[in-house]
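JOB MANIFEST
job_type = single_chain_structure
chain_count = 1
residues = 325
[input]
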Amino acid sequence: MRAIQVAEFGGPEVLVATELPDPVAGPGQVVVEVAVTDTIYVETQIRGGWGPQFGIEPPYVPGGAAAGTVLAVGDGVDPAWTGRRVVAGPGALGTYAEQVAVPLDRLIPVPDGLGLREAAALAHDGVTGTGIAEAAGIRPGERVLILGASGGMGTLLVQMARAAGARVVGAARGERKLGLVRELGADAVVDYSEEGWTDRAREALGGAGADVLLDGVGGELGLAGFALTADGGRVSTHGASSGGFAAVDAGEAERRGITLRGISEVQYGAADITRLSAQALARAAAGRLRPVIAATFPLARAAEAHAAIEARAVAGKALLTSLSG
């Protein structure tokens, strides 16, 4: 089969198409013919040198989720899975490929009426976003500030917060991305690349600050967002697209009665992945959640996808289509 392999850490150019043996389903596994592969920002960071932090060393096939059709099943797996449309959920490693072997506990059926592109776009972000929104417990009338609101997960969080009845302030970079955030239902938008953005965000939040901060950016922007959080609020610091997670002072958070949740709280086990993914897919199939697909690249052009993601040229999701489909 054709796949994308990283032989050494580096820029997008290290993503190279290669031929690898077709996978074989082991006990408790299935082989999925990949139609669409999800991409997330952290994959560019792993490729760029963060690999050892995740236990990844070259050579490796990137990717952690995809959507496609079950080709074959291994021992102990019901043959009825064969031919079903599925998401190979987070933890299905090596999905930048035409086929991938997936443990049964990482397999989620795709509901009727939902396309594989949309299902793939929800494979990571639908799980994490649903879990973040669930843990935040957003209530009607609350003020929610979302940093990175135009990204794959940010666009989902905007919709989820609005559905919960919150006043949503979305922060992103540039008018094109802000326009998307408005379209998705944000009550106000703020460009955090502009000087004085925190003043405008506080005004949009009604002066009292955010009851809930959902930080998908990290770094100094994340710290600025934390400063905009009201005492007694809830904060999720789950993103690091700025290059690092926000170094929030846990002592200050405790003094202000702010509940902190970080990246470790969104590392879900198989049972939660299945549950959260099924919720996200069902909402999308019912028309209550729309993944924003900004660009689709052939698998062989994975380097272009990574370059676009790193250049912040993508508002929403970038997906890869398999060489066979």
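[summary]
The mean pLDDT is 95.
The two ends are 12 Å apart (CA to CA).
exit_status = 0
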